[in-house]
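Long-time lurker, finally posting.

We've been working with Small CPxCG-related zinc finger protein (Haloglomus irregulare) and I want a structural starting point before designing mutants. I don't trust myself to interpret raw outputs, so I'm hoping someone here can both generate the structure tokens and explain anything notable. Sequence follows.
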Amino acid sequence: MSEPHCPACDARMERTNVTAEGVGDLYVETGRDGGVLDRLGVGHQTPLHAFLCPGCGMTQLYADLSE
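Top reply, 14 upvotes:
Generated this for you. Predicted structure of Small CPxCG-related zinc finger protein:
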């Protein structure tokens, strides 16, 4: 995934890591109930990638839909 641009200030966002004490990788829990995520082939746990704007500090998380 290429670095997105910040919707607040249009600076190029940089990939970063978001962690919680004692927690490993971040995932989003997704159901496979025949909905849009099922049609996209998204599994039950989809990895998240974090991006940080160096200009304003906005942080965004993106689900890795390619896996």
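Before you design anything, note these points.
The chain is about 5% helix and 30% strand.
The two ends are 12 Å apart (CA to CA).
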